[in-house]
Design goal:
It is a single chain. The chain is built from nine helices and no strands. Helix 3 crosses helix 4, helix 4 packs across helix 6 and helix 8 runs antiparallel to helix 9. The relative contact order is 0.22. The C terminus is likely disordered.
Length: 246
């Protein structure tokens, strides 16, 4: 049995983003040791760098979406209408006009559970905003109060922008799901190059050892242990598409 043996890791079972992260970090820790490599390790690293660079470019290209700007604009609009509703409601709570004051108190009571909804993460915000509109449309008293304060059009616009935002959000997620599948086409080459490079370093540690090579061996092995726990020993699970590889 070899004196130095790398921790078992099935890199092909890692998610797209986890695999790229492992490969990128492995390259980064290896480059400072290049001067200690023989021809085999040098050739393996060069191929590994090339294949992982192509892999990363494909991930980044496929995960960029033109829909993000549209989604950001719609989110800004719906949040703007929500803040307008809160602002106007608050301005009439102490109004000397009893009719408007009563209407403001009705709106205040209605929005109280959701007052900070605009600060929620994007996906949670969409769900809460949809709930607000559904309850608003089912509550005649709140609708009447909104009309007294001139907020009926704001609630309508708020709902319209939120629905549009939800449609774009789903479309973008569908794009990201396809991007995840697209990213797999260059994954096998990067996996093969990673395995070849790790084998080269393992063999060097056993047959042409030096302090530098042994040090690199241990660094690569620690990475393998970490990513083994992230799924490198089991079934691949699609990565969340919201964070493109850097």
């Amino acid at each position: 049995m070899s004196k130095f043996e790398l921790t078992s890791l099935t890199a092909a079972n890692l998610t797209i983003n986890n695999a790229f992260s492992l490969f990128k970090t492995s390259i980064e820790v290896s480059i400072p040791f290049k001067s200690n490599f023989g021809p085999i390790e040098s050739a393996a690293l060069a191929q590994f760098i090339l294949d992982n660079d192509n892999f990363g470019k494909q991930i980044n290209k496929s995960q960029k979406s033109d829909l993000t700007k549209k989604l950001d604009a719609l989110d800004k609009d719906r949040v703007g209408f929500w803040k307008e509703i809160k602002r106007i409601e608050n301005s009439y709570v102490k109004s000397p006009d009893l009719t408007k004051k009563e209407a403001a108190l009705t709106i205040q009571s209605f929005i109280a559970p959701y007052v900070d909804a605009d600060s929620l993460p994007l996906n949670s915000k969409s769900g809460v905003f949809s709930e607000i509109s559904t309850k608003y449309n089912a509550n005649a008293a709140v609708q009447a109060a909104a009309k007294v304060l001139g907020l009926d059009s704001s609630f309508a616009s708020f709902e319209t922008k939120n629905k549009a935002s939800n449609v774009i959000y789903k479309s973008r997620n569908d794009e990201y799901a396809k991007a995840e599948a697209s990213g797999t086409s260059l994954k096998p080459a990067a996996v093969a190059s990673y395995n070849m490079f790790c084998t080269a370093i393992e063999q060097a540690a056993n047959f042409t050892p030096s302090d530098k090579i042994i040090s690199l061996f241990h660094q690569l092995d620690e990475l393998r242990k970490t990513y083994h726990a992230l799924g490198g020993s089991g079934k691949d699970t699609p990565a969340a598409p919201d964070a493109p590889a850097k």
